[in-house]
## 1
Amino acid sequence: MNPQRTTSQCEMCGAVTATRRHLLGATEMLLGACCSKYGQPLDAPAKQGTAASRQQGLERRAQRMTSKDIYQEERLDLVADFGARVKHGRERKNIAYDMLGTKVQATVPQLHKIERGELRPSDKLAKALERELGITLMEKVEADAAAVGGVTKPSKAGLTIGDLLKDAMKKK
């Protein structure tokens, strides 16, 4: 990994961004661009065309090209009884449809359909409704194993076409 620049949390403001080592007073800190004006850089980027510059470029490229495991990310999904929760939250706070619609940027017919469970709100609208009504519409999804066509395999390893073919051959 590149010793000059890393993607981590700025030690001054907490933002997750590209950071560099800086000297702030007598303390060495990792600062993002937002806070770098408060310290003096300890690492200067290598001059263009040098071997160090090419190495830094290769390291940045390798970092960009690494794939993320989407199965390890936390997934949130809409609860099954979202309509009842929205209706209960709106009635509890005694908010009219037009007032709520203005606050969450939704139309009154949309809110009626959401409360009846006929319309699934977008993730953005669900978060706005949660914030305004003080309710929970999105919950963490627990995916222990992926099951497709009767084949169960831990999601960490991922289900492959080979797994499906093996299962099909066993059934014959």
## 2
Amino acid sequence: MEFEHRPVLLEPTVNALVQADFGGRGAARSPSAVDDEAGAARLQKGIYVDGTFGRGGHSRELLRRLGREARLVVFDKDPLAIAAARDLAAGDGRVSVVHGGFACVGEELAAMGIAHIDGMMMDLGVSSPQIDDAGRGFSFMREGPLDMRMDTSRGVTAEQWLAQASVEEMREVIADYGEERFAFQVAKAIAARRAAGPLRTTLELAECVAGAVRTREKGQHPATRTFQALRIYLNRELEELASTLASALELLAPGGRLAVISFHSLEDRMVKQCIAAAAKPGAAQARLPLRESEMPQPLLRPLGRVLADDEEIAANPRSRSAVLRAAERTTTALAVDAASFVPELPGAHRAKRAASHGGKARRAKGTR
């Protein structure tokens, strides 16, 4: 069955990678920005990455704008997306395909002999075909198995995880990854429901959650946050995003661009904070008696934020929550661990406290 795919923020995302004056660059050039001649050469021979191929809307538009000697490496976990990517590669020699998440971008590019890239884009979240295919288990509006895996060839399904997770584990995941106020009530409702019989379908879970969420945001299904939380957790989406943002800082050549579309506040916050930290690496030392020349120099130059306009939202309601953030790599060498510019994951502080308390308890027990 074919499903319609509408790329979100298509033109702005590709423009962020290839348009010289994107984000007002023409009005206020960065001292570290590459010149227009170098930028033009990059479009002809540059190496680009699409970390979330999906059905290839963004990749096809980018290829249309690149030269014959350019190269595009596309990644995706979804076997159906990979099949579409291989069809594209069969007709375009500039395309290389990797069946895997974007977290492995550094390793995979190194295996191809690629040390630096000129642009990377990521469209986070679930694609329209994945939502519309009830068999994938992402939609709380369609009857289907509780799967929720991006890569259906491996990993634990939502049904399997919900069958064995404790109430506290479910509460933490739903609260941390879904920012659900009623996470405890939802976790207890799931535990009570599975005691009467296993949860096997999306509509069974949606109905169970709806009974536990006492209030809801206007126009939002009560199960929205719980489904998002389970999907993000099971697919390790935030962990992979954190790893990939660090890899982008290492891989992007001077003048190279990063463009990330987020649909969830946690994802957008991580991207925003990473760009901000890399753009002002000396913020923590601002009050120290250091000369300007001694301060850490920016690794990224923010190129701004773009939201879907009314016309796009009317044509594709799923673009309503989309946020595109873009940045450009400067000429500053990376002198510290790139991961230091990526914010901590949800629940990280709690995990540290638990580890600390556990260590103290073990030490205390050992002295008795």
## 3
Amino acid sequence: MRTVAIRAKHARRRWADQALAAVSLALGAALSACHTPKGSEWLPYGREIEALNRHLEEQFRAGNLLGVADVYADDAMLLDERGTRVAGRQEIDEYWSGIEDPVDWKLEIRSIYGSDSLAYELGRSHLTTRRDGVLQTSVVDFLVLWRREPSREWRIVLDAYWPREEP
């Protein structure tokens, strides 16, 4: 029985790795010509996504973790460094509301590629929580796929992160 569970776990991890690789390749090919300049030179959609990053940080600092989750689409998927997959509104809400004692979150945007309807962002996250009175900061690199909804609001449809690579 344990062997079956281990095989299933490895199959899920392989699936998550393959899904992330496929999405990354497809996005890179489809959007490579659509690079958004940094900072004040960003196109309007880049500035909108930057503003949403600041909104996410503010919601986290305020302890409004469902406010963070609300920026995700109902059909969103989150993949962590272990290949664990969180998908759909309920699981996304549970993931974010499960964080205990949020303190600070800083999202560094490295680049944004895309168009006015679909974009992806590459960056680095510094997320700080307090555990047993001690501050703990997780630093990871991330890829976020944003989709503009019919309401014209941007929503996260894929959030993948992995340990930061040392320079």
## 4
Amino acid sequence: MTDVAKDRPNMKDTQEKLPVCFGELETVFPKGADGLRTPQAGCLACRHKTECLRAAMKSPCGLKAHEEFVDRAYDAGMLSFMQRWSRKKDLQRKGGKKR
């Protein structure tokens, strides 16, 4: 076993120690009253915040959040129609959606 493998905890050990809210987008990265998503203050102190937010953004709800970001950029004039269409199509493919 290499030194790197010794330093990494087993996946089972890591999963047992994760908080209940791990990877839940609406808990760790909810939409505020202004329509923008912001992390919770309690989550910023958590040692799992980076992995948790990544897991939340890879979930189906996270893909919807990415679509919100694309729509907001289009509404602000930062994306053309074709860029918006292309990015949304890519997100739908990642999510396995068929329209």
